[in-house]
Amino acid sequence: MSTATATQETNTQSLAHLAGKYLTFFLGGETYGIPVLKVREIISLLPITPVPQVPAYMKGVINLRGKVIPVVDLRTKFQLPEAEATGNTCIVVVQVGQTAHSQGKLVGIIVDAVEEVANVNAADIEPTPDFGTSLSVDYILGMAKLKGVVKALLDIDKIISAEGVEAISSQAAA
Fold first, then answer.
1. What is the CATH number of the domain that holds 36?
2. In sequence order, what DSSP letters do the residues of 133-163 get, joined into one string?
């Protein structure tokens, strides 16, 4: 077995735990995926109530069937240029910070459009490229090659910290 083949097998085995179903969505012309088990629902864009003194990427909160849910604009979080909302712009409600002892928190993330639920095999996943020491990409689980397109698989728990969401929820409730 060649060294390249052995390295590829090791990478595939180490990334095997990432295989599964992902909700893919568009954001700023790129496609991303989050594990479908983190997704609670997809809703149309609702009026967002701003909350003072929160980071710019926190757009505010929505009232979803009596529950106040913080909303994150992923465009702002990823430092992408602002864009007008379209008919495809929606809020994906995800659960973050879930542990064996906690159900975590619900958070809405604004995306340009939802694409599909894709089944990602371990063989289709590559490790996150090394962008150098100055860039932290620990929020990217890996890169999936699906239908000839590379999609970044995101760790939504690292993008949105449960502690930050808790602080914003408390501030909104006050």
1. 2.40.50.180
2. TT---TTEEEEEEETTEEEEEE-HHHHS-HH
The number of folded domains in the chain is 1
State the CB neighbour count (10 A cutoff) for residue 143: 17
Burial class (CB in 10 A: 0-12, 13-18, 19+), 113: middle
Domain of 137 in residue numbering reads as 3-173
Sign of the alpha-carbon dihedral angle for 27, 14, 118, 93: negative
CA 23/CA 48 separation, integer angstroms: 23
Predicted confidence band at 168 (pLDDT cuts at 50, 70, 90)?
low
The rounded distance, in Å, linking the Cα atoms of 174 and 160 is 21
What are residue 18's phi and psi, to 5 degrees?
Answer: -85, -15
**Global pTM?**
0.83
Q: How far is CA 51 from the centre of its chain?
A: 22
Where is pLDDT greater, at 101 or 6?
101
